[in-house]
Specification:
- The complex is a heterodimer of chains A (596) and B (473).
- Chain A is α/β, with parallel strands linked by helices.
- Helices cover 37% and strands 18% of the residues of chain A.
- Chain A has a 6-stranded mixed β-sheet, sandwiched between helices.
- Chain B has 15 helices and 2 strands.
- The radius of gyration of chain B is 33 Å and the shape is globular.
- Classes of the chains: A alpha/beta (596), B mainly alpha (473).
- At the A-B interface, helix 3, helix 4, helix 5, helix 6 and helix 10 of A face helix 1, helix 2, helix 8 and helix 9 of B.
């Protein structure tokens, strides 16, 4: 269906080709997953299939790409529109019209299909993707998952034989991502559509792939093979594969289900050795302390584990009382200087946050989770003083953020927004740093030192827009840290980052937390939360529905549990590194916990 | 697509029992040590079966297996009904839904608006232009007030909750502003209207000789104020009529009704309309983000500093959209023989020239004889050119708005109002243009007033917009 014949792509002005000598055949009806670190040319390869490379982007393509027998050299993208459907990361950039139904019809209108055919296919696609209820809705009013489904539907209506997707789930929360993946799964199985998809978050998709195409390094020869084969050698891999490699499972498990089947001995070994994993408590129910302001769990995050077993029984009655009695006056423990007390934020008539109380201890790392639109970003913006709460009180280091002049506030709270470009204004990294020093009234050179530490090897005259996603995030982080804020807020920091960039980010943030910064992350990335956070707060509809130590909150939640936790449940293991440390410790003579 | 293969997503891997290294020295792990049923934890992994997602409605028929099956039409009707938000009571049921304001739902009442019975956007514009034409024929504040009332009532009765529907309020404010401005100018700059009822006298600013004919300050009479008010009200009424059309007709649908040759221009306008709100949102977001760098969010400097990033963002978005449109087949053209192409160019060019010449003939004092025929001829040529040019486009239209009986009634009611007032203007000029010198109380000419009430017809015949959907959390 898709054939690459010795294809090389060189962009104008680049000295080295982005893709080199790619030979590749994708048969009909397969779901092929394209993996590799950032910047190896995944998007270029996808663009070559739809003809956008080189017709739209410029550059030189050597060799031959054929899709359903059509050569992309002689066919412009618009002439391939009936065989290839392309969906990108941001559905809003894809939409041409304003309502769901028109959007589904747009591609067919361009192809000149008969009105009766269009009408029928729109109805079929609405049913296929479960969009029937949304048919008249304006596109801007849909949630992220719904928008992505509409984007997929809009390229499906011309009945393409090939679907090309560039990171379709990276902006979505776990539930919305499953929605989109379920649709893709259905297309491959029911309609025989060929799907070629690039994705960074392998833990979400790798188990659905028929085959995996790996580009290990820029301009390297791609490897095509079964998921298990490729994952065994891939530099990027999901935690389930990391765990499989650690435990020497063969063939490598790709899904939680496969891994669980094989994990019984590992579970037994771990639970024999450490009934209570390091720093965790096995009580799984504590997180239901909803609405009580999260006062109880604050200290558990900081303190060593509780004795085993007794926790559920002692907490249960207290909890049931909490739920029936009116919420007690929120008590704030830890650092009382930084908290939100009973805040409500309204936008128009909608209450985005509702009577929310949260205390942030000094040096604590908190992960804020919840579906898109749950109020995570609003909470961060309120803590940073960008939004004034309608009612309630916010204090950061003893000040009300929205009433303190911004120039003072940068010394107490720093927010890295979802798109770091929002706070980058200058033309070069050096100019950006000078401005940050001036803004924060810091000694000249403070910011540049931070940039060098976080982002080694970036020349002064680089334009911030030419940096990769990970580098841009690091630059924004450095700018924000110039004011030495005690509270650091990050909104969706791992969006678009590959595993390597994520690992670096985790190291940086761990270092900051160790230096006494309080960190609050709003994230969909459960693996990141498991790596970093001591405490997880789950928001839904502007209210806190769960608040407690990471292990307790995420292990029992189907949506927010990291893969390792799902595999090793009911043990409270969250990350591969914990397991690795524990296994390594077991080989040591006498691990202290083994006596317990 | 032609071969519906069902390739399993996961290679069927029966777990080999001895595939993992058993820990040395541990007792064989009893399977019962994991009390939690693994099924619950595994749920989050994506549901390997393509289970219908939560948002999916119960489907009326089995989904098309190869995407080409056709459901029987009645099932589609059902599927569509399932999607509408508030089912209407059956015809003849005396109790109207609460959302319909207790209106009686009978055979003759307007149906609930949906995509199929949507009124043609052009009908709303014709109706509003008819009202505007009527308004331009009179300065009688009572008649103008009636026109405003008619437009306002129809907007209130048939407005949707779409974003463009909110523009009515903005137009009303603009109308009031124009009225105020007209009065202020009249007071400050004076007026050629001779008046005897002196209200007050402003200090007059002596102007140099070259500014003769311009007065600044001076006498202010009741007559000049009344004249300015009449004039201002008329301007405001025109604006309000335009605002009514704007809030009742979907601009995107209106552009969809353009002839095929003008389609590209229409797309440009639609894209611009969606970009404007995005850019405003960008400006707001970036201004707020300045706070994160410790800079004030207000002031001119803030706007200047974020100007470049906003423009860059807009440019990036437009490039992304251009790529998406190209990949979706935008700009596909049919092969057209060169002869047709040349004829198209000739017709369009000739038509435009003819229209220019004709207009000039009409406006020039001595060319009125040949003006009209040349103008009409040019118009015909240009239209033929457009029609022929449309052959290059292979686009088809998905569910275009149909011009049905209700559209005729709506457009016709506007035209009727215009016709009545034009006729009244020649029969009863005094009633439509109440005198200012001497000041008289304007009367209400009865039959023009009755004529204006015809403009209320759309409030009864146009399909009723559905009740605003409850925002799901």
């Amino acid at each position: 269906m898709i054939r690459f014949d010795r294809v090389s792509v060189t962009y104008d002005g680049a000295d080295a080709p982005t893709l080199k000598d790619v030979d590749l055949v994708v048969p009909e009806g397969e779901l092929v997953l394209l993996v590799g670190p950032s910047g190896v040319g995944k998007s270029t390869l996808l663009g070559a299939v739809s003809g956008l490379v080189p017709h739209f982007t410029g550059g030189t393509l050597r060799g031959r790409v054929t899709v359903a027998g059509r050569d992309t050299r002689t066919h412009m993208p618009r002439e391939l529109a009936d065989v290839v459907g392309t969906v990108g990361q941001d559905p809003l950039a894809h939409f041409v019209t304003d309502t769901v139904e028109d959007e589904l019809a747009y591609g067919m209108e361009s192809l000149g299909l008969a009105p009766a055919v269009m009408r029928r296919r729109v109805e079929e696609t609405l049913d296929l993707l479960g969009l029937g209820d949304l048919r008249d809705r304006p596109l801007a009013s849909l949630s992220g998952g719904q928008q992505q489904r509409v984007a997929i539907g809009s390229v499906l209506t011309p009945h393409p034989q090939v679907l090309v997707l560039d990171e379709p789930t990276s902006a979505l929360d776990p539930a919305a991502a499953e929605e989109v993946l379920a649709v893709l799964q259905r297309l491959v199985h029911d309609l025989g559509t060929t799907v070629l998809m690039a994705e960074h978050r392998l833990e979400r998709v790798v188990q659905y792939a028929d085959r995996v195409l790996l580009i290990p390094a820029p301009a390297a020869t791609p490897l095509l093979g079964t998921p298990a084969e490729i994952m065994a050698v891939s530099p990027v891999h999901p935690p389930v594969v990391t765990l499989g490699r650690l435990a020497h499972w063969a063939p490598l498990p790709l899904s939680v289900r496969d891994a669980r089947r094989r994990a019984a001995p590992l579970r037994a070994r771990l639970s024999d050795a450490f009934p209570v994993p390091v720093g965790q408590t096995p009580a799984p129910r504590a997180f239901e302390a909803r609405g009580s302001g999260g006062s109880a769990p604050v200290h558990t995050a900081v303190h060593p584990p509780h004795p085993t077993g007794s926790a559920p029984t002692t907490r249960r009655p207290l909890l049931s009382r909490l739920r029936t009695a009116p919420p007690p006056p929120p008590s704030v423990q830890g650092d009382p200087a930084t908290h939100a007390r009973n805040i409500t934020v309204r936008r128009g008539r909608a209450e985005v946050l509702r009577h929310l109380t949260l205390a942030i201890g000094k040096g604590e790392t908190i992960a804020l989770m919840g579906r898109n639109g749950a109020g995570k970003s609003t909470l961060l913006a309120t803590l940073a003083g960008m939004i004034e709460p309608t009612t309630g009180e916010v204090r950061v280091a003893g000040r009300a953020p929205h009433r303190t002049p911004p120039a003072d506030m940068v010394h107490h709270v720093g927010l890295v927004p979802q798109d770091p470009r929002d706070i980058l204004y200058a033309d070069t990294v050096a100019a950006e740093c000078e401005a940050a020093d001036a803004d924060a009234r810091a000694t000249p050179g403070t910011c540049r030192d931070l940039v060098s530490a976080l982002l080694p090897g970036v020349p002064d005259d680089t334009h911030p827009r030419d940096l990769s996603e990970g580098q841009r995030l690091a630059l924004a982080l450095a700018l924000v840290l110039t004011g030495r804020p005690g509270l650091l807020l990050l909104d969706e920091p791992t969006r678009g980052l590959d595993y390597a960039a994520k690992t670096r980010l985790v190291e940086v943030l761990r270092g900051l937390a160790a230096a006494g910064h309080s960190i609050v992350l709003a994230t969909h990335d459960v693996e990141l939360a498991a790596e970093l956070a001591q405490r997880v707060v789950i928001l839904a509809g502007g209210e806190i529905v769960a608040d407690g130590p990471t292990a307790e909150v995420v292990v029992s939640s189907p949506a927010f549990a990291p893969q390792v936790a799902k595999i090793l449940a009911p043990g409270h293991w969250l990350t591969v590194s914990q397991v690795a440390a524990a296994l390594a410790g077991r080989e040591a003579p006498v691990p202290p916990e083994a006596d317990a | 697509m032609t071969h519906p293969t069902t390739t399993p997503a996961q290679p069927p891997t029966p777990p080999p029992p001895g595939a993992f290294p058993t820990p040395p020295g541990t007792s064989p792990a009893p399977p019962g040590t994991s009390p939690a049923p693994p099924a619950i934890e595994a749920q989050g992994s994506g549901g390997s079966a393509p289970a219908p997602t939560a948002a999916q409605p119960p489907q009326p028929g089995a989904p098309a297996r190869d995407g080409r099956d056709v459901l029987p039409p009645d099932l589609y009707v059902k599927a569509r009904r399932g999607g509408t938000r508030a089912p209407r009571p059956a015809p003849g049921t005396p109790t109207g839904g609460a959302g319909n304001g207790g209106r009686r739902a009978g055979r003759w009442s307007a149906p609930e608006a949906s995509r199929s019975n949507a009124l043609h956007a052009g009908a709303w514009w014709l109706w509003a232009l008819g009202l505007a034409t009527a308004a331009s024929r009179t300065t009688n504040p009572l008649l103008l007030g009636m026109i405003i009332g008619v437009a306002g009532y129809v907007v209130a009765a048939r407005r949707t909750d779409a974003p463009w529907a909110r523009s009515y309020g903005a137009f009303v404010k603009l109308g009031l502003f124009v009225l105020g401005l007209r009065l202020v100018f009249s007071v400050v700059l004076g007026s050629p209207i001779p008046g005897t009822h002196l209200l007050f006298t402003l200090p007059e600013v002596p102007l140099p000789a070259w500014a003769q004919g311009v007065r600044f300050g001076g006498r202010v009479t009741a007559e000049q104020l009344v004249f300015a008010a009449y004039d201002g009200i008329r301007l405001a009424t025109l604006l309000i009529c335009v605002g009514a059309a704007n809030s009742l007709a979907n601009p995107a649908r209106l552009l969809k009704s353009l002839p095929a040759a003008l389609y590209e221009a229409g797309v440009a306008v639609v894209v611009a309309m969606t970009f404007a709100p995005n850019m405003v949102a960008d400006v707001v977001r970036l201004r707020n983000a300045r706070r994160l760098r410790g800079r004030p969010t207000g002031g001119v400097k803030a706007i200047l500093q974020i100007g470049l990033p906003v423009l860059e963002g807009a440019l990036e978005r437009s490039v992304a959209m251009a790529a998406a449109m190209d990949a979706r087949g935008y700009g596909r053209t049919a092969a057209v023989p060169p002869a047709v192409r040349h004829t198209t160019n000739l017709l369009t060019l000739g038509g435009l020239l003819g229209m220019c010449a004709g207009t000039y003939g009409l406006l020039a004092a001595d060319g009125a004889r040949f003006g009209t025929p040349v103008l009409v001829g040019g118009l015909v040529l240009a239209l033929a050119g457009l029609r022929l040019g449309g052959r290059r486009s292979i686009r088809t239209r998905y569910r275009p708005d149909r011009w049905g009986l209700r559209s005729w009634l709506v457009a016709g009611s506007g035209a009727a109002v215009a016709a009545v007032l034009i006729r009244a203007g020649s029969l009863d000029p005094a009633g439509l243009q109440p005198g200012v010198v001497p000041l008289v109380t304007p009367g209400l000419p009865l039959w023009p007033a009755a004529g204006i009430l015809i403009g209320l017809l759309p409030a009864f015949v146009a399909p009723l917009p559905p009740a605003p959907a409850k925002e799901s959390p």
